[in-house]
């Protein structure tokens, strides 16, 4: 080894970089000597939780990943499913939680940039972005600062790069106050047989780095920021402010050029393999390419185009500068590759070679400065068992009450519609371009899932228009109440959303956002949640094709709600029949489909009333939910429904109000004794639980909706009021409420003032 | 009838404009670094973020080689349509009067809007009827149309105000609710809303098609 032997880093340096004493000793053993500074930096990143999944990998192995539609499963940059017509849809969700908690605009922007690179790294053109966000209550200044920054950042990146943001979700809960969640999901399309692998191959082939130059930004992002608890992220001169240099700065224009350049390189058949640079930069990208291909690599950092002079070799290797890609090419194609880079005004440089040594060797102008076995770096990080311990008491404080349990149903409905978790998301989603690329058939608030035509601007002939549907969902509060059933419900909810537009699910991705897994109660949440995720995906026959784990989401004020975020992609045969959520025509009948068994446990209403989370949710009848989904999906596909909406947060009454508002028309509903007597009127109106759908259509059509699935006619569409009546057979329990549409609309628009 | 759709680094709605134009004629993309307009009968400067919109929206694209040819083409009376970022480019190139400032609501906003056809007697609106409402989406952060008062007065008098936002639709704060304007000669037209995103019922509306159809009518009328 040429340099630095006189100033070898110590155990203390390793601890600062996030390794444990045992891990440092194992590194020394793998190396056969103490690592130098560069080697230690590379190990500390690749052996971080963020890169190595060392607390979650064993659990993730229990998840179902195979199915008839899977084209690419977990392990590549993104998963992919066959969507017909010779096309594959690549998709993945990823988190950028801690960067966003430290610097929300750039954190969220680069989160979008990172997930888009994952999609085009496998050769797919990104066609849509969705996001899943969690903040503290918006009455708090920090939550509003994070919300505004994150939403602006997502828009800044997605809008500028020409990929529509077609959907998403946001919830506001106190446990996310310090540690917000920013998860971004992207979808892309590629010819089914032309998906690109990241596995390096071909002894003597060249390694070409292209895209932005490499600077000192984002150093240590994957280890010290992403793989540790968040301390003092409020940034008032505390540790949060110190962490800001670990957050990268995004340049969507650079990424737009990088995207077009990458796709043109692939189209011309110039690449052997392709990989994006994300967490841990060149270190992780090169090592993973080498590991997948079972080869070695020599990288000369002197060849890397730098943003600033005098960068140390380790800085070049771990920089998380954005908008960069790494590819392996045959030596004879270098000129052609660089010509494409030049066309798109993208820097390109050959920085190394594929070798047969199975070692990752780092050089500076030919001088060796680091030498590690690829397998030690990538595959031999110790994996840890979790030690789950079910908590004996509540982990979370009850929310502050803003509504009395004695309020009238009318007051409850208006309070629910106006509460931050249920109010219209229009002030957020209007900040995103939802229509670029000319394939968005259902925009936000038009249907329960976004619908995207497989081919842009599909019009013309009258034939069917094949389309994709996509939904992202996850209710952390319900998972906190019951990690197993709450997660199960989140997966079911996604599939229900797809059913409402007429889509069958093909595959899922997930982002598991949890606290510190070294703590027993968090380990328990994670273990139970993954069990629910696996059971739900198996029950629905929807494999998991990729995902991400974000741990250590907690700070001094405690852990976040356990938040598995589920993204699901489905297919529908004809976008012309894609379902809508709004009531359409006066006189249409309204029916409840499915075995709705509403409960106020962990509901929005319970939250508004300040109730403590229950210990456990009611059992879910997955088969009944699936049967109802099938019935609704088939009815939508047959074109017999005017509207279809899944009953979710806020229960039946809120779902009715949403259908009225989306359609701009009122409704009159009457609930019979048998529906509510056992549970009481509040639970009947506002209780939550999976499996119920609200549909409307012509009376005769609804009669023949489905066999073996409960269908109950409850009212008719029409007028300019929502009127709900509960039969008055029991004294003191009678309920009848009427709310004008404009009052519903006023309440539903409550988030507007956050962005005024 | 052939449309040429410009493509800058950072163009986002270039392919959308291409597909929209192909519904009424032939169309091809024209690379920013080339000067050859490929024999196009009309030019579309599309939406997006040309050169990242760095410096100022449209300010860099205006100096690209292809724009030199477009300026010459417009000088010879050729039809040029600028959509959103393309409108900004045409204002920067001084092919159109006025400028686009930051939205009054200070945010990027994507919304389906109702537009009023103020002047149906132009090469870009002759397939419309005066006073007709078009449903077309807009999506931008720099769309507040501004011109000096005397310029505005002259434009109103000479029929250069072609499209206006219908009542309660002007979220960006454009003066006189202006959504689209043409030059004095009537052969260059810019608008902030996106007619290329209103060419298909499935994705929202077909009203924007009338802009492209009008251009075809104008080109073919001129050829007869």
Q: Strands of the biggest beta sheet of chain A: in what spatial order?
A: 8-10-7-11-9-12-13
CATH architecture of the domain at 408-423 and 580-756 in chain A: Alpha-Beta Complex
Total DSSP helices of chain A: 27
Structural class of chain A: alpha+beta
Estimate the helix proportion of chain B, in percent: 10-25%
Largest sheet of chain A: 7 strands, mixed
Number of helices of chain B: 5
Q: Which whole number gives the mean pLDDT of chain B?
A: 95
The name of the CATH architecture of chain B is 3-Layer(aba) Sandwich
Count of beta strands of chain A: 28
SS-derived structural category of chain B: alpha/beta
The radius of gyration computed from the alpha-carbon positions of chain B, rounded to a whole number of angstroms, is 15 Å
Shape estimate of chain A: globular
Task: Describe the overall structure.
The complex is a heterodimer of chains A (756) and B (224). With 756 residues, chain A is of the alpha+beta class. Among the domains of chain A are: 197-236 and 243-379, Alpha-Beta Complex (Phosphoribosyl-aminoimidazole Synthetase, Chain A, domain 2), CATH 3.90.650; 408-423 and 580-756, PurM-like C-terminal domain (Phosphoribosyl-aminoimidazole Synthetase, Chain A, domain 2). In chain A, 34% of the residues lie in helices and 23% in strands. Chain A has a 7-stranded mixed sheet. Chain A has a 7-stranded mixed sheet with strand order 23-25-22-26-24-27-28. In chain A, a hairpin with a 7-residue loop joins strand 14 and strand 15 (450-453). In chain A, helix 8 (141-161) packs parallel to helix 11 (252-267). The longest helix of chain A is centred in the first third of the chain and has 21 residues, at 141-161. Chain A is globular and about 85 Å long. Chain A starts with 10 loop residues before the first helix and ends in an 8-residue tail after the last helix. With 224 residues, chain B is of the alpha/beta class. Chain B is 24% helix and 26% strand. In chain B, the strands form 2 sheets. In chain B, strands 2-1-3-4-11-10-9-6-7 form a 9-stranded mixed sheet, with helices on both faces. Chain B has a two-stranded antiparallel ribbon with strand order 5-8. In chain B, helix 2 (65-75) links the parallel strand 3 (42-45) and strand 4. The longest helix of chain B is centred in the C-terminal third of the chain and has 15 residues, at 209-223. The two termini of chain B are 12 Å apart. Chains A and B meet through helix 8 and helix 11 of A and helix 1 and strand 6 of B.
């Amino acid at each position: 080894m040429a340099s630095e032997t006189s100033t070898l880093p110590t155990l203390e340096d390793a601890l600062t970089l996030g390794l444990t004493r045992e891990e440092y000793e194992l590194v020394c053993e793998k190396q056969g000597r103490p690592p130098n500074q560069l080697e230690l930096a590379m190990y500390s990143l690749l052996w971080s939780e963020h890169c190595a999944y060392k607390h979650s990998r064993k659990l993730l192995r229990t998840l179902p990943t195979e199915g008839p539609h899977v084209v690419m499963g977990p392990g590549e940059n993104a998963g992919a499913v066959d969507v017909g017509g010779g096309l594959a849809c690549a998709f993945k969700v990823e988190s950028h939680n801690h960067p966003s908690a430290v610097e929300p605009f750039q954190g969220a922007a680069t989160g979008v940039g990172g997930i888009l690179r994952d999609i085009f790294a496998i050769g797919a053109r990104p066609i849509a972005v969705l996001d899943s966000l969690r903040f503290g209550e918006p009455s708090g200044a920090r939550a509003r600062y994070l919300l505004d920054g994150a939403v602006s950042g997502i828009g800044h990146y997605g809008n500028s790069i020409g990929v529509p943001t077609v959907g998403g979700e946001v919830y506001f809960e106190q446990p996310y106050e310090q540690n917000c969640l920013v998860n971004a999901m992207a979808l892309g399309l590629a010819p089914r047989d032309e998906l690109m692998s990241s596995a390096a191959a071909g002894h003597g082939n060249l390694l070409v780095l292209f895209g932005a130059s490499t600077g000192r930004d984002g150093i240590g992002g994957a280890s010290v920021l992403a793989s540790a608890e968040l301390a003092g992220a409020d940034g008032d001169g505390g540790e949060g402010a110190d962490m800001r240099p670990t957050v990268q700065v995004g340049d969507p224009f650079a990424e737009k050029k990088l995207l077009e350049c990458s796709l043109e390189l692939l189209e011309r058949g110039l690449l052997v393999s392709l990989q994006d640079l994300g967490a841990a930069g060149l270190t992780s990208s090169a090592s993973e390419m080498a590991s997948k291909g079972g080869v070695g690599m020599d990288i000369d950092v002197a060849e890397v185009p730098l943003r600033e002079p005098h960068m140390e070799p380790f800085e070049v290797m771990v920089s998380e500068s954005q908008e960069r890609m790494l590819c392996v090419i045959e030596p004879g194609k270098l000129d052609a590759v660089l010509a494409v880079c030049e066309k798109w005004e993208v820097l390109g440089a050959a920085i190394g070679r594929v070798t047969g040594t199975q070692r990752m060797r780092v050089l500076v102008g030919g001088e060796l400065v680091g030498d590690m076995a690829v397998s030690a770096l990538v595959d031999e990080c110790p994996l840890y068992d979790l030690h789950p311990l079910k908590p004996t008491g509540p982990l979370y404080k009850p929310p502050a009450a803003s509504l009395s349990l004695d309020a009238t149903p009318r007051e409850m409905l208006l309070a629910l519609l106006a509460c931050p978790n249920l109010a219209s998301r229009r002030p957020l989603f209007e900040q995103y371009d939802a229509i670029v690329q000319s394939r968005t058939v259902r925009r936000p608030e038009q249907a329960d899932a976004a619908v995207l035509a497989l081919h842009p601007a599909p019009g013309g002939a009258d034939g069917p228009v094949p389309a994709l549907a996509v939904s992202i969902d996850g209710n952390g509060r319900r998972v906190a109440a019951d990690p197993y059933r709450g997660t199960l419900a989140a997966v079911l909810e996604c599939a229900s959303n797809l059913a409402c537009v007429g889509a069958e699910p093909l595959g899922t991705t997930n982002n598991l956002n949890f606290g510190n897994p070294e703590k027993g109660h968090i380990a328990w949440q994670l273990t139970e949640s993954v069990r629910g995720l696996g059971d739900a995906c198996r029950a629905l026959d929807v494999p998991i094709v990729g995902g991400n784990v974000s741990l250590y989401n907690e700070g001094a004020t405690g852990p976040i709600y356990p938040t598995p975020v589920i993204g699901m992609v489905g297919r529908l045969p004809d976008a012309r029949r894609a379902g809508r959520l709004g009531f359409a025509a006066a006189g249409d009948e309204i029916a409840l489909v499915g075995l709705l068994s509403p409960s106020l446990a962990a509901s929005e209403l319970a939250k508004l009333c300040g109730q403590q989370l229950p210990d456990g949710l009611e059992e879910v009848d997955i088969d009944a939910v699936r049967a109802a989904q099938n019935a609704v999906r088939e009815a939508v596909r047959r074109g017999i429904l005017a509207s279809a909406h899944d009953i979710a947060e806020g229960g039946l009454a809120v779902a009715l109000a949403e259908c009225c508002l989306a359609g701009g028309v009122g409704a009159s509903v009457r609930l019979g004794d048998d529906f509510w007597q056992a549970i009481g009127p509040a639970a009947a109106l506002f209780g939550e639980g999976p499996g119920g759908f609200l549909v409307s259509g012509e009376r005769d059509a609804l009669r023949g909706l489905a066999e073996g699935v409960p269908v109950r006619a409850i009212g008719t569409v029409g007028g300019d009021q929502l009127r709900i009546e509960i039969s008055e057979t029991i004294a003191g329990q009678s309920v009848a409420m009427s709310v004008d549409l404009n009052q519903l609309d006023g309440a539903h628009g409550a988030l507007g003032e956050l962005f005024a | 009838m052939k449309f040429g759709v410009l493509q800058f680094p950072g163009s986002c709605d270039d392919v959308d404009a291409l597909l929209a134009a192909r519904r009424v004629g032939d169309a091809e993309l024209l690379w920013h670094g080339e000067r050859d307009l490929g024999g196009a009968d009309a030019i579309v400067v599309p939406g997006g973020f040309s050169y990242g919109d760095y410096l100022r929206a449209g300010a860099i694209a205006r100096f690209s080689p292809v724009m030199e040819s477009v300026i010459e083409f417009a000088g010879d009376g050729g039809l040029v349509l600028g959509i959103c970022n393309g409108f900004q480019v045409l204002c920067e190139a001084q092919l159109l009067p006025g400028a686009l400032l930051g939205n009054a609501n200070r945010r990027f906003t994507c919304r389906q809007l109702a537009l009023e056809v103020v002047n149906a007697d132009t090469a870009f609106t002759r397939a419309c009827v005066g006073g007709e409402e078009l449903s077309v989406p807009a999506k931008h952060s720099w769309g507040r149309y501004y011109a000096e008062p005397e310029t505005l007065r002259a434009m109103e008098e000479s029929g250069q105000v072609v499209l206006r936002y219908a009542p309660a639709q002007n979220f960006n704060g454009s003066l006189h609710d202006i959504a689209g304007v043409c030059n004095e000669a009537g052969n260059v037209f810019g608008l902030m809303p996106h007619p290329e995103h209103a060419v298909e019922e499935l994705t929202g509306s077909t009203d924007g098609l009338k802009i492209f159809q009008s251009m075809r009518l104008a080109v073919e009328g001129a050829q007869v």
